[in-house]
Amino acid sequence: MTNEGLIDALKLLGAGLAIGLGAIGPGIGIGILMQGALQAMGRNPDASSNIQTNMILGVAFAEAIAIYALVVALILMFVI
Amino acid sequence: MNSLKKLIKWAIYIAVIVLLCNLMGALGKLGNFPTITLPSEPVPGLAIGDFKITNTLIATLIADALLILFAVVATRKVRKGSPDADVPRGSQNLFEILMDLLYGLSANVAGKQAKRIFPIMATIFLFVLFANWMELIPGMESIGVLEPAHGEIKGYAPRELIPGVLYTIDNGQSVPHKAQPEGEAPTGEGEHAAEGEVCQSCAITAFVRTATSDINTTLALALVTMVLVQYFGARALGLRYFSKFINIPALRKGGMGYMLFIVGFLELISEISRILSFTFRLLGNIFAGGVLLFVMTSLIPFIVPVPFYILEVFVGFIQALVFSMLALVFINMAMTSHDEHAAEHH
């Protein structure tokens, strides 16, 4: 196995692992977040729009972590 | 009976589309897989002396021009002072809805200080929104120049669409380009196309590329935002604001003060990490969205990319909103002094 081929293969493997493992945490996090938000909206429908605004903010924060993992995967595939 | 006819009609539509895709795939004329690069590329031929103009810079300028045009058109009646402006129509209506939404958000979060923070928050929102949504215009990242491929980019053989004028790359024939030894300029012998000749191993360099898919744009936005946070904080609280980071007053009190001093350093680190998080959140969302659209369109150019376009519209809007809302929240937090902050919680 040549050195070049090994490096290319490991790059792709690394990219796959980066985004695959990196998306587990945010996925669970967003699920827990939505649980809290929906429960709150169920208990207090009048505060729905307030809760929704804060929920979108929270989802963006949690999703940002998955995006960091995606950026690492993209850097592995297209830059290095 | 009617629903059966509808079912048959839809089945025929879908069958025709699938047949078309298969036919064009067999002929090799399906969507091309584009050249995906993370860094932005300078547009060849466009340079002011040594300063190369990149394709994302052109997109930023276009977004700025569109913004100014939109603002001018939407407020034309208001500026003329005509009584017509009381019943808004068209772009003025849209602008008023946007401003209402954003000002409502600011007032909700910032209360009394909303008037000061609202302009910067709305500007960031509109700029990021326009820059993100420009990604969806056809021809955005696909029309460009054929350039010799170098480095990590794969090269393909060129294919003529209109002889002499319009070319594209032929994804069927991958042409390996000679590896560059370190230190040699990219326009070395044998790689650069001779005058008037088409390259051998080509990749497409787009003319215009989404502004926020370049790390330079997002990093600039993030830096400006964080510097503005410090500026607003210093203007509202005076030099006492910086005691948030280097907490000398707490150190003098002793006891718990030592802990608060260390917390000040943590605050400093978290400010820097906010810059990175702003940058990568926006960059990752928009760049990955672009790559997703590319891949989907190059696989099946009919109908299937439409849900992904809808996703991109949504993501562009949400990312603009999140960037500006976070800027709003950080500026608000910087402008409230520590004692008011504690009072709010009780």
Q: Domain count of chain B, please report it.
A: 2
Summed up, the helix count of chain A is 3
Poorly predicted runs of 5 or more residues of chain A: none
Residue share in β-strands of chain A: under 5%
Largest interface: A-B, 15 and 22 residues
Number of strands of chain A: 0
Query: CATH homologous superfamily of chain A, by name?
Result: F1F0 ATP synthase subunit C
What does this structure look like?
The complex is a heterodimer of chains A (80) and B (346). With 80 residues, chain A is mainly alpha-helical. Chain A has helices at 3-22, 24-43, 48-78. Chain A contains three helices and no strands. In chain A, helix 1 (3-22) runs antiparallel to helix 3 (48-78). Chain A is rod-shaped, with a radius of gyration of 19 Å. The two termini of chain A are 20 Å apart. By secondary structure, chain B is mostly helical. Chain B has ten helices and six strands. Chain B has helices spanning 2-26, 55-74, 76-80, 90-110, 114-133, 215-237, 248-253, 257-299, 305-335, 338-345; strands spanning 42-48, 51-54, 144-148, 156-162, 166-174, 202-206. In chain B, the strands form three sheets. Chain B has a two-stranded antiparallel sheet with strand order 1-2. The chains are: A mainly alpha (80), B mainly alpha (346). Chain A binds chain B through residues 50, 53, 56-57, 60, 63-64, 67-68, 70-71, 74-75, 78-79, and chain B through 36-39, 105, 108, 152, 277, 280-281, 283-285, 287-288, 291, 318-319, 321-322, 325-326.
Comma- or semicolon-separated keywords:
heterodimer, A: 80 residues, mainly alpha, F1FO ATP Synthase, B: 346 residues, 2 domains, two-stranded antiparallel ribbon, two-stranded antiparallel sheet, 10 helices, 6 strands
